[in-house]
């Protein structure tokens, strides 16, 4: 039975335009002109006999029919991408390795994964890792990744999420800073330079109250805009920083940082491994998650 389907390239244009709600942005993504996108969308609408977009002077918007159809089209593209990837992994004649594409935040990549890649490659020589770092959330239905490692609450819709580890926050500093200020009692956080994360202005006072210390002023000598930046500043001896364990286990083990006080406080975000339900039987994903979890547990036990 012959199928009456629109041309695939028209569906690709429709999906991009609908996702962006813009012919211009779809054109930029697909290296076409906005007029070409508009012309092709009209061809698709003529093919279907249904209006998919409402045109306005400031852009375009999906009609109710378009909103319903784009769900089907996006699911179709995901199935096609998933099937193509599975075919390549199973039947590729060029390589016997499995490609595992991972998205994670920079700190997890640089502090935990990359320093131990040699160990992973020895244990799983048939798995090729492609790791990209970003702070942005991704949609595993459409983005070109198989697995994401993220900090959050694990409540991500339409995906499988496995908790890898909890986070605890504690003051950290360079060995020289700890020696200079003779740090031994957590009450000293009231009298030494504190490094502040610019987007978490009350973090020191909140942490102090959590461990039973009142009146910790947010009088930091230095405020920086990212977690990695405040950690680097602490390594340079510029002050105390609130660091997350086990993310900083490598720096602690190597002596770049020290933990001068025993007090820690649980941090609400946890580390989760996230993947699509269709990939729940993939051995490479479970191999990496098991290896990563064991790696963190071992480092926390040292």
UniProtKB/TrEMBL annotation:
GO molecular function: DNA-binding transcription factor activity; sequence-specific DNA binding
Keywords noted in UniProt: DNA-binding, Transcription, Transcription regulation
CDD domains listed in its UniProt record: PBP2_GcdR_TrpI_HvrB_AmpR_like
Domain HTH lysR-type span(s) in chain numbering: 6-63
Any GO BP: DNA-templated transcription
Family statement: Belongs to the LysR transcriptional regulatory family.
Protein name per Swiss-Prot or TrEMBL: LysR family transcriptional regulator
Organism classification: Bacteria, Pseudomonadati, Pseudomonadota, Gammaproteobacteria, Alteromonadales
